[in-house]
């Protein structure tokens, strides 16, 4: 088992390759897309719970584990990358398409920030 620390700046393609290398060392390989979707739902629920504890009205139970929001977000990212890899989705291409869509669709939707003179 590899115990390498992820470099601070990686492209989405590098992240996908890193996750693929990690998963490829196990005989089980990738879970099915449906199983990964269930895992993603679980991870999003953990993030929601933590945000609710830290920024919402629901106090943490004394038996609840104190989790970090950044860890929950990273768990979600890992599962999203796993799902993308299992479906042969290039996340850099997909993200580029989504940003283009948002830039076109929402160009006049929000109030632009005023530039300092």
Uncertain runs are none
Mean pLDDT: 90
CATH class category name of the domain at 33-105: Mainly Alpha
CATH homologous superfamily annotation of the domain at 33-105 = MazG-like
Mind describing the biggest β-sheet?
Answer: none
- Note the gap between the termini: 55 Å
What is the CATH T-level topology of the domain at 33-105?
Helix Hairpins
**Helical content (DSSP H or I, runs of 4+):** 55-70%
Second CATH tier, the architecture of the domain at 33-105:
Orthogonal Bundle
Total count of strands: 0
Order of helices and strands: HHHH
Structural description of this entry:
59% of the residues lie in helices and 0% in strands. It is an all-alpha fold. It has a domain at 33-105: MazG-like (Helix Hairpins, Orthogonal Bundle). Helix 1 (12-24) packs across helix 3. The N and C termini lie far apart (55 Å).
């Amino acid at each position: 088992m590899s115990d390498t620390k992820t470099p601070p700046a990686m492209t989405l393609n590098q992240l996908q390759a890193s996750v693929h290398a990690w998963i490829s060392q196990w005989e089980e390989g990738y879970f099915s897309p449906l199983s990964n979707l269930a895992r993603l739902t679980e991870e999003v629920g953990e993030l929601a719970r933590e945000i609710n504890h830290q920024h919402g009205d629901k106090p943490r139970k004394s038996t609840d584990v104190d989790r970090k929001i950044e860890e929950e977000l990273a768990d979600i990212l890992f599962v999203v990358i796993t799902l993308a890899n299992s479906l042969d989705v290039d996340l850099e291409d997909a993200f580029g398409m989504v940003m283009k869509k948002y830039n076109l669709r929402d160009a006049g939707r929000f109030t632009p920030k005023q530039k300092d003179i």
